Amino acid sequence: MEQKTTARILDGTALARRLREEARAQAADLPGPPPGLRVILVTGDPASEAYVSSKTKATREAGLRAETIRLPSDAAPQALLDEIDRANQSAEIDGILVQLPLPPGLDPRRIFDALDPSKDVDGLHPENVGLLHQGRPRFVPCTPAGIVALLEANEIPIAGKRAVILGRSEIVGKPLAALLTARDATVTLCHSKTRDLPTLCRQAEILVAAIGRPGFVTEDFVAEGATVIDVGINRIASLEEAPAHLRNSEAVRRSIEEKGKALVGDVDFARVSQVAGALTPVPGGIGPLTVAMLLRNTVIAARLGRGLPARD
Ligand code: NAP
To answer: Lowest CB count within 10 Å: 6, 41, 82, 273, which one?
Structure first.
């Protein structure tokens, strides 16, 4: 039987719905055709296929245009660079998103460099990274933007708090560190070489897990009452694949039986919910907010393309 939940559950789905409505209204107010998003997907990863389809669906539902260009998994770097160049040059395209991760052999940094920074809705071009780190963001990467929006919507204070982030990716950990620092948190950014993670994490008032390790964060990592944000999305196709501590989870077992897979976060939800003050679920936490923020960024790109300031 699942344990009783005590932490407040931070609902990303409801907030994402509101943010998508906001983006729809902002897009409708813009002059010219609806903002257009082009997603470039190097195929081969089923999870990426699913993310791209939910991103383009949500974009269209908000009245924006969305299209996906698919390249084979063995595409040469030049083929991807040519696609980016076409999207950079096209007056029809406001925002460009290259779905990550890229297969080995495609150097992500070369790809980020090639994007037109005024269309870079994932905020990965060095110019956008620099602006973010200087505290004057143009495009804030979608997942960290969603995390901050969720904290703020739930009135969880950031200023003066100790925040620990697990994972230093370009798309989550590093930009989130910049955003929380800009909001006056004291941030520790951890990675695979960090020593004694549980002790460090127990000092956090806000703990964010973005490492891609199912159920890695247990109650030993969490201070009583801390806010825990679970960014990880890990697909488990059988109970044997699940880490030992998740094999008894009724929710994981049921999902595998019914859907052939379970999505689990980096946090052991059942155990951490006994200790944390607030906690995001997987699914239904940060994932939907990432999609909502992509719409927001596409509207910003469209504003820039129409000679308007990024924000009102
Ligand atoms: P990533 O590029 O996969 O990198 C993982 C990071 O975690 C690296 O910095 C790595 O350290 C660190 N790490 C790995 N194992 C660790 C360990 N045992 N202890 C401490 N640190 C460890 O990261 P990502 O792209 O940000 O993805 C992370 C997770 O978030 C994945 O599950 C992904 O699916 C999910 N995600 C979810 C969303 C969403 O919308 N909810 C969006 C993006 C990503 P090193 O740097 O030392 O290698």
So the answer is: 6
Sheet strand arrangement including 36-42: 65-71, 36-42, 95-98
pLDDT tens by residue, 56-102:
999 999 999 999 999 999 999 999 999 999 999 999 999 999 999 99
Q: Verify whether ligand 1 is closer than 6 Å to residue 168 (CB atom).
A: yes
- Pocket test of ligand 1: the residue of 140, 168, 211 to mutate, having most ligand atoms within 8 Å of its CB, is 211
The pLDDT, as a whole number, for residue 250 is 85
The protein residue whose alpha carbon is closest to atom 36 in ligand 1 is: 232
Q: Is 274 a catalytic residue?
A: no
- Per residue in 87-96, pLDDT (tens digit) is 999 999 999 9
- Kindly give the distance from the C-alpha atom of residue 167 to the centroid of ligand 1, in angstroms, as a whole number: 5
122 in catalytic set:
yes
Distance 45 CA to ligand 1 centre (A): 16
pTM here?
0.96
CA distance 228 to 22: 26
| Angstrom distance (rounded) from CA 201 to CA 180 | 16
| Centre of ligand 1 from the C-alpha of residue 232, in Å | 7
